[in-house]
Specification:
The protein is of the alpha/beta class. Helices cover 39% and strands 15% of the residues. The protein has helices spanning 33-42, 60-68, 90-106, 135-156, 173-181, 194-199, 204-210, 225-234, 238-243, 257-266, 287-300; strands spanning 11-15, 47-49, 73-81, 111-116, 159-162, 189-193, 215-220, 222-223, 247-248, 271-275. An eight-stranded parallel beta sheet has the order 1-10-7-6-5-4-3-2. It has a two-stranded antiparallel ribbon with strand order 8-9. Helix 2 links the parallel strand 2 and strand 3. Helix 3 runs parallel beside helix 4 and helix 7 packs parallel to helix 10 (257-266). The longest helix is centred in the middle third of the chain and has 22 residues, at 135-156. The protein is globular.
Length: 304
């Protein structure tokens, strides 16, 4: 008889609109927001992220009412930034970030996930800028991200967690390490997305050990290694790669999530671990069965 894995007492499991095929505030191909809330609760999750700003209600009272009615709470909001462009983009960035930070704070969450801007269009593959930053751009990325962390912390009481992401400048293990080395741990933490890190050649268990003091948040995701090999060989942009199914249902892909969760538990801090299986676009009846199976699988890994 096999024994159950130890309970992951420091890990709080949730899901996100991403796992229901939601990438945009409004899109006819996406699951309607009420259905998302109904189904994420039905699948056994208690925590959610806001997803793209405007997808869920942006009135805090209404959003709180809608989530509470389903036994749900919000773990984080998400913003996209191009901070390597320096002070010239600060005002535009802050206008976007402050709106989302205010809603995130108002619904009781404590984290703001920060995703760097894409160097190529995630739909068309059009190259928007050089995929490699100059030394000056790295300095701006570090200093402006610290500024963002300070402002978000001071004004909204939130902690920013920067999300390495495919087709951005913070992607590979070496670029993640370079970014963390250049930023203040008091202001900038890491959202380790296991799928994106694998997509970009990284090992999440190694990252949890190497960057232990910087880990502030987790996204749980897997990649299909066979599809990924084709994506890399064809230099396919991230959007079309998702359309091919590069992000797959656990536990069929990599990395194995049980050792990742065990390594996260060993950090000895409370962490959100939010399931994000990129599926855009997807048929409306597809997400719920996957979400139920994924929640059951994570329970089998000790994530109660």
């Amino acid at each position: 008889m096999t024994s159950s894995p130890p309970a992951l007492t420091r890990i709080r499991i949730g899901s996100a609109p991403d796992s229901w095929g939601v990438w945009f505030p409004d899109d006819p191909q996406q699951t309607p927001w009420r259905r998302f809330l109904d189904e994420v609760a039905d699948a056994g999750y208690e925590w959610i992220e806001l997803g793209p700003y405007g997808y869920l209600p942006t009135d805090p009272a209404r959003l709180t009412e809608e989530t509470a009615a389903r036994g749900l709470r919000v773990s984080a909001g998400t913003v996209f930034t191009g901070l390597h462009h320096g002070p010239a983009v600060w005002e535009e960035t802050w206008e976007h970030v402050s709106r989302i930070a205010a809603l995130t704070q108002a619904v009781g969450a404590a984290h703001l996930v920060v995703i760097p801007s894409f160097w190529r269009d995630d739909k068309t593959g059009k190259v928007l800028e050089d995929r490699t930053l100059t030394a000056a751009q790295w300095r701006e990325l570090a200093s402006q991200t610290e500024r963002l962390g300070r402002e978000v912390q001071d004004r909204y009481g939130l902690r920013i967690v920067v999300h390495p992401h495919a087709d951005t400048h913070i992607d590979t293990p070496s670029n993640v390490a370079r970014f963390l080395d250049a930023t203040d741990p008091a202001l900038v933490s890491l959202c380790l997305d296991t799928g994106h890190y694998a997509y970009c050649g990284g090992d999440s268990v190694q990252a949890l050990e190497a960057f232990a003091e910087r880990i502030g948040y987790l996204h749980l995701k897997q990649v299909d290694p066979r599809i990924l090999a084709d994506v890399v060989a064809e230099e396919l942009p991230f959007g079309p790669a998702v359309g091919r199914g590069v992000m797959c249902e656990p536990p069929s892909g990599v990395p194995a999530l049980e050792p990742v969760l065990a390594a996260a538990q060993r950090l000895g801090v409370d962490l959100f671990a939010i399931v994000e299986q990129d599926m855009y676009p997807c048929p409306p009846d597809r997400p719920l069965p996957i979400a139920r199976r994924t929640r059951a699988y994570l329970r089998s890994c000790g994530a109660r």
